[in-house]
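QA checklist item 7 of 12: single-chain prediction sanity check.
[x] sequence parsed
[x] length recorded as 750
[x] structure emitted
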Amino acid sequence: MKTAKTKFIYFFIVLMLLLIPKSGLTANVPKTIIHSNYSNYMLGGYSGYPLVLLNPHLNNSNAFYMNFSAKQMLEHPQRQYFAYCNTNYENFIPGVLSSLLNVDESMGSLALDPATNNLIFVWQAKSDSSSQSVTNTYFAWDLFSECFQPGANFTNHTILRDNENSNSENNQEFIYPIIHISPSPYQGYRRVFVLHHIRVDDDDFTKDYSSGLLLSIADINAATYYEDSSELIWVERKISYTDIIQQESPGERIRAYPSFAVSKNSGTIAVVLYLIRDIPNEPESAKHNFVVLLHRNYGEGNQEEPVDFEVYNFLIENRKEPDWFPSFDPDEVANITDANTLAHIDYYNEKVFKNTSNWAMVSQRISNTTITFDDYGNLHFAGIFVAQYEDNETGEIKYLENNHTINSFVFNTYNNTLSVYPIYPSPYGIYRDDKYIFNVNPDVETKITIPFSWDFNDTGYVNIKTDYDNNFIPYPASYPYFHHDWGIRDKINQIRMTQFSNEIMGIMWMDSARAKIHHESKAPEKSYPEYFERPDIMVSFFLQFGIEWTEPIRINSLVYPELGNIPAYIYPADRILKDDDYNFRLYYLYVDKYQWEPFNDIGDYPFYSTIKLSHIEFTFHPRLHYFYPNVESYTVVIPPTSEEITNEKDIYTERPQITLYQNYPNPFNPSTTIDFYVDSSLNTTHVNLSIYNIRGQLINTLINQNMINGKHSVVWEGFDSNNKPVSSGVYLYRLYVNGNIETRRMVLMK
């Protein structure tokens, strides 16, 4: 019998549970920004923010601006676009940034002036259409605060960095502009920082990328926007550290991938470099692969000399001794009775781990990433690491390719302390340990060891885990790249952090681990067949200032078919939108591809795609760590500008038009009818209609053949491909017709 006290406690708990808002995440149906695009590669640049939320306190509404490149016609140059939209995808206003014609534009980013809600855009463009033309950088601003009409008060594009007529030596071009705005040392002003990355022209006009960095600085106030943009005074300063390694490595140039951030609360500037070659003549004791550069005084210095930054070097070392190799804890194995698990353990002991040595977690460069400051003097950036070992029989250095980790680096600029925390994989979703905190001295190299993803507790043994189908895996599969091809991992990777805002920050990346397992499996029909040409979008949010990260949300076009076909090149907004104390939204820009070819974005293989905008809604209770993920459709097309209109038909209009209708009955038991419509310029076209479970696994293929135009029907009797009845639950049915995909949900209720 319950006492009065027990009843009260019970009532109080129930009441508190009712008062706590429900957690949820929704990956929303995206808004199509550009229907036909033939230039997929890095539409939003390398390391800036092409999607920026406006300050709602200045114009009383939530809205954002975009800055991205696209090629709407195959034979026309790539253009740089802006677009404005509110957070409900209404009042969409697009346009081109410049009046430049017949030249390629790209690699844009933008920044918000927080005092005015005006926007400053930067991008690069070729000086002419020839293959030997010079690339210059440009800027423009939108005086949005004047009338809150996007694009109505745009300045003319103005050259920011004139590489064609500069005094640079050795045919140097400073390009790839990244822009940030912070406080200025001068009262009433804000300071604009634009970082350029060097590219060197060799005698044969081939391009070689190197390490030199150039910082362009200007001070602005509200009156600046009413003046001629060409009159704005920019001060150019090379960064001494990168200038030195640039000059000391001719013919063997160091490739340093830079990321750039400026504190919004102080004048501290940070640059993080991911090095891919050792610096010549550097002693072995000083080898490093991560460099943090800090300037604590707004970039001030002698205008005639390169500006000096504090230099902090980090070396990622081997985790274990040379004669160590992975193995399983014999005490744990002794308690396992499942024959399948024991067979897998024997396989890894005999086929994977045996005759190996020199195991290490080694860093992989991140070619496209963002870094950020929080409000407490911490600099946040991410690192990718992969398991590497030596084959004792061949002496060859190999990688356990599906064993990557993504780690969060937190550098405290007040006490020079570096903390390293795993984001993914992590055995419990959250992991903390003081031994991964390092005190950093700018004059002494800091050596860091990264734990293996299968051994976070550092026991020396492989943790035994299972995936969501209870299949044995010796480690969580992680392959943080857009495509499963190992040979192009350095060309197509992105890890992008939002800026710190409202005590929360997000991080997004692509993962192709399941696709890689499928393509390399000896039995691909049983190994993630639904991932034949499909990556995942991974999203995580931090708690406790980056010390704790949520277990990543996995978003793909199977679970959330509204995303489209093959999402790629993701760009989260500069910050997360806070609706109330517990509900948030993360907006992101991306390319929706129709073909998943590894080189079609970086070579002469233009493939059709669309550019889309979507967002994730989620509820989060920080004190209770209450987090649960929750994905609508708007379509607006940027029309071609007058010079882009041609007599040729846009390939988009020639693609087959399809309609997938809701099944009936729904819910159903035991059978249901699915209707669909196909309208193609051809008399017949290939149609694939398949059934998937809610986890994205292929259940059955109902149609896989050429069909004539018109409306068709098919009945699903509730059986899988082995003619076995499936259980009750939610199922997806997907129609694929020559690159067009539509997906709907249905419920089997027995």
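[x] summary fact logged: The longest strand covers residues 397-412.
[ ] second reviewer sign-off
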